[in-house]
Design goal:
single chain; alpha+beta; 20 helices
Length: 706
């Protein structure tokens, strides 16, 4: 069919009126490099981040107005000055379809937050590199090793979390930067759920997907109407916004809800689930001390992209953070052992929610009186006065009078710290799953988890070793309550035990096994990223451990968080009441959790302390060496040299002797913790102080209050 001149001209005019496209991403990078401009300098000129420039040049994202017009003008100018030699680079097939704020095919495009005339690049000041032009990763850090990550879930293309900065840039994992147009907290929640593509799949087939996490920098918090800091006489992580704060009112007006914890450093905003679809977003406010320095060393001061990297690795290897590392450790237990599963009702044939075998169920369970704490209602209301379990980690120092002359002449005291000793104790640990039953004069059975009243005061052991039956290492003075592993160890040492009473659980299982396996893998993999691998010999291992924190501070922070997750998670199993208004005998919020299980905490600590004593006894038999002090998972030995290689037992073949302390990156094996002179250690003991505590710098042990 003939085409008229008018139709051709109309088609051409339509093409001319279309918005011109940017050059392909590879050509953008070529033009910038040809002009001799760094990404940081261009970012400063464009008033954006260096990571955004990187994303524009690798096709991850596209600029929006007014930056789009300014960037196009700049590239056109560079194209005229630096034409391509040879054929132009092939166009990226995805460059025109990369979403700016959403990966959902049905999500509407985010509206432009502002309109402006094209910016004259010649009039824009070119500033030197500054904190505003942030690199996504430190240029001085060696490139991280490529590690196989989890399979990408198409529902969550941008990973589990993002760090939102004040300019609207949301930094995700793997260098992704999203543009977030939100100006209020409700808008942020809506954007996160509908457009961000954030979240993580469930860890167990019967579990739930992890809710997306948004971490707010101080600038982002202020932009969204939050105070930069929470002030008050309590610790900041205990503070909350008042109910009449404008942001809280905005949340309520938009028909969102806050949990009973309110709007604090870790705030959960949700609506009731519609069918199977959860509507919940987790927020963390950095300037409100959401990331505790003890658990996340240096992370709060990192650039947003580095924070996203640290938390992203932790989320992929452990769990998307839900609060402190202690809270995350407890949440991980439930995520790996969900309390319910779908079961078929035989009467109706319908699928309903039922108990998941091996889990702790959905209802809280009161402990036996000796397993509780003095303020627990079970104790107060019953008038219990029969004593309590005292299964705690070691805090022992050897009496100075028990030091030999030879030991006093040794020049060094060397500290050995067991890698995640409490995690190692959780492996294949059988714990009770049902309520306790009371028995009188039962026969001891080491396979039944529970609490036993038994007299172990008749057992005589070498005074140069701590007693395995008490945290302070002193000999028991009469009947006391012990967890199954402690009583079993007395039997292992060759002594008869005759329990007077017991609180035992008929149903049991290895509840913590998946928790142990996931955290052990995370710990070993993170150490490997830092250059500490299983194939190193002991000399290489010590050298690698000495440098691992400097190798990559971000991954070192992940390692610290994993260790804190282990200790905090175990401690959280017996969280004590908090707040000055608490009255003894009242129930406190933690008691309403099925995971408030002091008996499981006691089992982990009992097994860890028994494991430590077994190694101490084996070391004494193999080497004749006795410890100076033990604090939790750290033991201090006198040594002729400043290395543990100077006193650890090795066979003639050069291999470590089994049974004693061994070096290595695996949980339960040892690493060098500190070296001091022997006279310094003796002086501390004479003052009644523990050398182990001073070498370690006072590590928190199984904190129950986070």
């Amino acid at each position: 069919m003939a085409t008229s001149e008018e139709e051709l001209f109309a088609s051409v005019d339509a093409l001319l009126e279309e918005e011109p496209q940017l050059p392909p991403p590879a050509e953008r990078a070529r033009l910038r490099e040809a002009a001799g401009i760094t990404q940081a300098r261009l970012a400063a000129a464009m008033k954006t981040s260096t990571q955004s420039i990187k994303n524009w040049e690798n096709g991850r994202s596209e600029p929006k107005e007014p930056r789009l017009s300014a960037y196009r003008r700049l590239l056109d100018g560079w194209t005229a000055k630096h034409p391509a030699h040879g054929p132009a680079p092939a166009a990226d097939p995805h460059s025109e379809t990369v979403p700016k704020t959403s990966t959902s095919p049905t999500a509407p495009a985010a509206p432009a937050t502002q309109t402006a005339a094209p910016v004259e690049m010649s009039a824009m000041p070119v500033a030197p590199e500054s904190p505003a032009a942030r690199p996504a990763t430190s240029s001085r850090r060696p490139a991280p090793k490529k590690t196989a990550g989890p399979a990408l879930d198409p529902r969550f293309p941008h990973g589990p979390l993002a760090v939102l900065d004040g300019d609207g840039s949301a930094y995700g994992v793997d260098g992704i930067v999203l543009d977030c147009p939100a100006r209020t907290i409700p808008e942020l929640v809506e954007w996160t759920l509908r457009e961000s593509g954030l979240g993580a799949p469930k860890l167990n087939r019967y579990g739930k997907d992890s809710d997306p996490l948004i971490i707010l920098t101080a600038a982002a918090a202020v932009k969204l109407g939050l105070p930069e800091r929470l002030e008050g006489h309590e610790q900041r992580r205990s503070l909350r916004l008042p109910a009449d704060h404008p942001v809280v009112k905005q949340v309520v007006k938009a028909k969102w809800q806050l949990t009973q914890r309110g709007f604090g450093p870790w705030a959960r905003i949700y609506r009731k689930a519609q069918g199977r679809e959860r509507q919940c977003v987790q927020l963390a406010v950095l300037s409100w001390d959401a990331l505790d320095e003890r658990s996340w060393p240096g992370v709060a001061d990192m650039e947003p992209a580095d924070i996203a990297r640290v938390l992203g690795v932790y989320a992929n290897r452990v769990i998307t953070p839900r609060g402190s590392t202690a809270v995350s450790g407890l949440e991980l237990m439930t995520a790996l052992r969900p309390p319910t599963r779908a079961v078929q009702d035989r009467a109706t044939g319908n699928w309903v929610s039922g108990h998941n075998p091996g889990s702790l169920g959905t209802e809280p369970m009161d402990p036996a009186p000796p397993e509780a704490t003095a303020e627990h209602p079970v104790v107060v209301n019953s008038g219990w006065s029969g004593g309590f379990l005292n299964e705690e980690a070691y805090q022992w120092v050897r009496d100075v009078d028990l030091l030999s002359d030879e030991e006093c002449t040794l020049p060094y005291a060397v500290g050995l710290d067991l890698n995640t000793a409490f995690l190692a104790a959780a492996a294949r640990l059988v714990v009770g799953l049902s309520a306790p039953d009371h028995f009188h004069a039962p026969a001891f059975n080491p396979k039944i988890p529970g609490s036993w009243l038994v007299d172990l005061s008749h057992i005589e052991l070498d005074l140069r070793l701590p007693s395995p039956f008490t945290p302070d290492g002193t000999r028991p003075t009469g009947p006391a309550w012990y967890q199954t592993h402690t009583v079993a160890y007395a039997q292992e040492l060759g002594y008869n035990v005759h329990p007077l009473e017991a609180y035992l659980r008929r149903e049991s299982g290895a509840y913590l096994d998946p928790w142990h396996d996931r955290l052990k893998t995370a710990y070993v993999d993170t150490l490997a990223d830092l250059g500490v691998t299983k194939d190193l010999d002991d000399h290489q291992f010590l050298a690698a451990m000495e440098q691992h924190k400097q190798t990559d501070p971000a991954m070192a922070a992940v390692l610290a968080a994993i260790k804190a997750t282990v200790k905090g998670g175990v401690g959280k199993l017996r969280e004590r009441p908090q707040g000055k208004s608490y009255q003894q005998g009242e129930r406190w919020p933690a008691l309403e959790r099925p995971t408030w299980r002091p008996d499981i905490r006691a089992a982990v600590i009992s097994k860890a302390r028994v494991n430590m004593h077994r190694k101490l006894a084996n070391m004494a038999r193999m080497t004749g060496l006795f410890p100076l002090a033990v604090l939790s998972d750290c033991v201090v030995y006198p040594s002729p040299g400043e290395s543990p290689l100077d006193f650890l037992p090795y066979a003639a073949s050069g291999k470590p002797q089994p049974g004693g302390f061994r070096l290595g990156p695996t949980p339960g094996l040892a690493k060098l913790e500190g070296v001091q002179t022997m006279l310094w250690a003796v002086d501390l003991m004479e003052q009644g102080l523990n050398p182990a505590r001073h070498i370690k710098g006072g590590d928190a042990v199984l904190d129950e209050g986070e």
